């Protein structure tokens, strides 16, 4: 069993820091929520690297919001529900579609510059959207522009303190409440931080897989520490694999945005044939899980490791203007989007599940909140609609701050941790352990799954459980412990769900089964795995 705390500590012997609100992680969720909270509270923001190291920075496509007069909240809600394959919570989707535009205007107030054309926002369309509603910045650098604007504001905010290069080890709890966090400083010393509210903005679990569009820091830290603290973790079997990441020798798995297909790009197999008409009536704009599995099928049929994305039929001017970042990145590797087909393959991209929250962003542990990819608000269901992630972060970030402003002051005490029980150190190559975990997840818990593979994967992961009895001190060791925790959660959830839906595909149960499985999967450290019915109004 995974222990309550990942390290030994004696709370009475640790230095302590008191604040009002603790924000763990950066990205749009952490930055926006911290800025909003700092308007009325003292905020301590803790990042394990820096403000610019997050998935948000790499978000290209944009942010979905109902801005156009031709669009409506009902249209966006319908698109979100369809993509979510029956597992969205209607109330959460309703919150998103109605409160998203105000969040966008707040981003603009904080200094974000979205692209405009003829005095209006330059809206584009992405896969599974029925309307042009995606705001973008600098063509295809939306995430970077949002992080730039918000980061600049945090640096001049007098009530917001930032700790870079600090690793949050675990959450401190007492009597079913979160009282703060145990933090390791860059020099290896530890400190207890207490606050009236703690917000997990730690991003996703992309590093569970060998091929991912996520940065190195996406190791599921928030989900893992929330699980150890006893929070409900929901729908971890639903991983979104982005259909089109660059697949070229010497190049990283760079994201080729869905917006490229939104602007009319074709997918071709290595024979040069378009193939999406064989898989879905929406062709290249089908939901991501459909497109990703279609690409995998074509790769297998043609014995290739990639397919092509082709936008050469569009003008060079449009391509360079709309996708300057992607164009320049590909050009660095000798690939010219205006004349070349770009080799792509699926890669792990987004975690639909996470720490279960209510509509205020609060988890099953009082005073512990989660925002962004680390959370499971009910918006995304079994498959996230493109560009809903950034809007979800700002909408629920605001709701979290509203809830925190109504909280009375919290107690500055917590349960003590284990002491002097772990002495042995980790031996063997950690890089090899991590690579094996990633390869096993691709093989057994990837785009296609079945009972035998999932059971084999789960058995292999459980052999690594003695890791938690070791004295883990290095950041890389602690990240691996969190990855292992999340891998177990994903695999156990995937084994439990005997159907195919959204980002979860079982070869042995290839059909969607609403009668038995229109339910969420909940895992709790203390009570095990269970299911919970979806909102009846979806």
Give a description of the structure:
InterPro entries: FAD-dep_OxRdtase_2_FAD-bd, FAD/NAD-bd_sf, Fum_R/Succ_DH_flav-like_C_sf, Fum_Rdtase/Succ_DH_flav-like_C, NadB, Succ_DH/fumarate_Rdtase_cat_sf. It comes from Cohnella soli. Belongs to the FAD-dependent oxidoreductase 2 family. NadB subfamily. The protein is of the alpha/beta class and 538 residues long. 32% of the residues lie in helices and 18% in strands. Among the domains are: 109 residues, Succinate dehydrogenase/fumarate reductase flavoprotein, catalytic domain (Flavocytochrome C3, Chain A, domain 1), CATH 3.90.700; 102 residues, Fumarate reductase/succinate dehydrogenase flavoprotein-like, C-terminal domain (Methane Monooxygenase Hydroxylase, Chain G, domain 1). Helix 2 packs across helix 3 and helix 5 packs across helix 13. The model has no long low-confidence stretch (mean pLDDT 93). Strand 9 and strand 10 form a beta hairpin. The strands form six sheets. It has a five-stranded parallel beta sheet with strand order 8-3-2-12-19, with helices on one face. A five-stranded mixed beta sheet has the order 20-18-13-21-22. A four-stranded mixed beta sheet has the order 1-11-10-9.
